Amino acid sequence: MRALIAALSAAALFFALPATAAAQTLIRDTEIEQMLREYTNPLLVAAGLDPNDVGLYIIGDQEINAFVTGGQNIFVNTGTIMESETPLQIKGVLAHEAGHISGAHLARMSEAAQGAMVPMFVSIGLGLLAAMAGEGGAASALIASGPQFGALNFYTHTRAQESAADQAALQYMTATGQSGEGLVEFFERFRYQEVFTPARRYRYFLTHPLSSERIAALRAGVDRSPYHDAAVPPEDQAQLERIQAKIFGFMARPGQVFARYPESDTSLPARYARAVAYYQDARLDRARAEIESLIAEEPENPFFYELYGQMLFESGHADEAISYHQRSVDLLPTAPLLRVNLAMAMVAVEDPQYLEAARDHLRVALDIEADNAFAWYNLSLIHERMGNTALAQLAIAEQAYATGNRMRAFQFATRAMQDLEPGTTPRFRAAELIAVAQPSEEEMRDLQRQQRQQQREQQRREQGY
């Protein structure tokens, strides 16, 4: 989402590029994450997995794709959400990926395939860390890297694994009282992919090849389920349609949004998409009108207030944005990104009266999501403004550790340690970071060389060289 890139508003924390860039980017958005978690968690439980142990990440890419990486991490493209006609189709795909995790399919690959995956894992991992640190552009470059994503071809699942994941998916859908029809529908819609060359296929169907036998086996399994004709609740379908409208509003050009959702369409999804498009098109008055109509219709929806606050914040009205972000937090106090949003707006107005409240919101957010590097960064700014440099340094150390930068975490934790009061929780935490981020002897030598080089350069500048 364009404006989210520019100001990195935590409202949706949509780490994305302009729609014209057509790049792959990691996305943080509470509303979308909440929907996908509602879909996925029951399936993970049915698979014998702990939902808290399974990472679920969204990639801002219009191409259809979903995949599992090392450990227990599921990645889903926004294109998969957009191309799904019913919630059951997305759930079927997610259940299939859960089947790969439960079956430990990645761990059973050949050594050659595992070696080929290393660049992919490194790229995705670095991209994720960059996104969490607020570096949307860096995340995009890392994740969109062609060679790394080309590695997906190397870990195409075997037919046996695909069949096992299919049957596992049907089992999970049945265990949760849902029909597996969606997975069959999804595959049937794209079975034409099999006639394309690998270069023209969606990545999903490179790693999950289709076949008539596979679809037939799925169909037979669905027909045996007691829930094969279970209907989708209307509210679930409505939720999917509004999420699709929101994604399209942010990722498509405004002209495309207005063509798909013309003014004559007064449905909630259409107004949601147009509100975003008007905002991206710098037509704030029109955006206000659309979002206010949504709030009037659903005054208890935290995500409408979140979007309104984001619009105002990124349009230079941080003071006005505070009340809308506050309302979103009041309605959904357990959402860490909403609290980060509110804290950012409070910090932006540069009024000291907001600093303590902003600090408290960030602390709550970090209690829920301890590795949110962006929240740690903002907390460091607040501590510095409040005159507590040691706590600011500790927050920077936490941010560095969350993004995998052990050396930086060690350096700032060491600095913080010098001024933190003995026997306090912050000092204990600084000691922990120093211990876990302790660099190797070689890394320490490199650091010392860098420090000496910096000192020499500083001396040259002071002497006028």
- Please tell me what the overall shape is: globular
Q: Report the CATH superfamily of the domain at 2-234.
A: Metalloproteases ("zincins"), catalytic domain
The gyration radius over C-alpha positions equals: 24 Å
- Assign the CATH architecture of the domain at 2-234: 2-Layer Sandwich
Helix content: 55-70%
Side by side, the strands of the main sheet go 1-2-4-3
What is the makeup of the main sheet? 4 strands, mixed
Percent strand equals under 5%
**Number of DSSP strands?**
4
Number of helices: 24
CATH class of the domain at 2-234: Alpha Beta
* CATH fold title of the domain at 2-234: Zincin-like
Question: What quaternary form is this?
Answer: single chain
Mean pLDDT: 84
Would you kindly provide a written description of the structure presented here, covering whatever features stand out?
Among the domains are: 2-234, 2-Layer Sandwich (Zincin-like), CATH 3.30.2010.10; 388-465, no CATH class. 66% of the residues lie in helices and 3% in strands. The protein is built from 24 helices and four strands. The longest helix has 22 residues, at 111-132. The protein is globular.
